[in-house]
Write a structure and sequence with these properties.
By secondary structure, the protein is an alpha/beta fold. The protein is about 40% helix and about 15% strand.
Length: about 220
């Protein structure tokens, strides 16, 4: 799994998100790699009919109906969104909310990607059996310093921590900026990557996506 979190980067604003998605579709098909993209929340409707999975960057514990300003999983599904990031380091939520949201996404048969900052959290939330646990040390996010190089033992320990989860797979994030970083993460036990600025802020989206995808196969 190759997940790209677009955050709220200006590079992806307006119609640029459509160009970005089209490139990802071509790269995914060319290398036969599953790419999923989490656009800014307000742009989801522009790209939800994509041939690759579209994810939300965040969802809320709230209900369908008289609720204002919340991101509701049931409505996302009706808009063809395939799942969501949960508890990203830039949008942390309580453990109780994480549990409720993982359960809700399971009920809806949507993908759940729980973001964690360390091995202790990986072990804790793996018990919920989300589809993915994404480990990202906050200090390395956006730093250009890959966790696979700076703290390789973290990936190994996280992979070991979730091995008893029945279906949860590990994603590696934070500072991944090259195909070498991707290959190293896989070597250490990661089943995929969660990236953001390393892709979105690159000058040539096709080239960098292709480099990452090629390293995954």
């Amino acid at each position: 799994m190759f997940v790209i979190n677009c955050k709220n980067y200006e590079e992806i604003a307006g119609d640029n998100i459509i160009k970005f998605i089209k490139i990802a579709e071509k790269v995914s098909k060319k290398f036969n790699v599953k790419i999923a993209i989490a656009p800014p929340q307000h742009l989801i409707g522009l790209v939800s009919n994509s041939s690759i999975p579209i994810l939300a960057q965040h969802i809320d514990v709230s209900k369908v109906g008289s609720t204002t300003g919340f991101i509701i999983p049931e409505l996302l599904k009706k808009s063809k969104v395939k799942g969501s990031l949960i508890n990203h380091s830039e949008h942390r939520i309580s453990s109780d909310e994480i549990k409720k949201l993982v359960i809700k996404l399971k009920e809806l048969k949507m993908l759940s990607i729980v973001c964690v900052k360390d091995v202790a959290e990986a072990k804790k939330y793996a018990k919920l059996n989300p589809d993915y646990i994404a480990i990202e040390p906050p200090e390395l996010i956006g730093s250009g310093k890959a966790v696979s190089k700076e703290r390789p033992e973290l990936i190994k320990k996280a992979a070991d921590a979730i091995k008893n989860a029945t279906k949860t797979k590990l994603l590696c994030g934070a500072g991944i900026v090259s195909g070498q970083d991707v290959a190293k993460a896989k070597e250490l036990g990661s089943k995929g990557i969660l990236v953001a600025s390393g892709i979105v802020k690159a000058k040539d989206w096709n080239a960098i996506m292709s480099e990452f995808a090629k390293s995954m196969v």
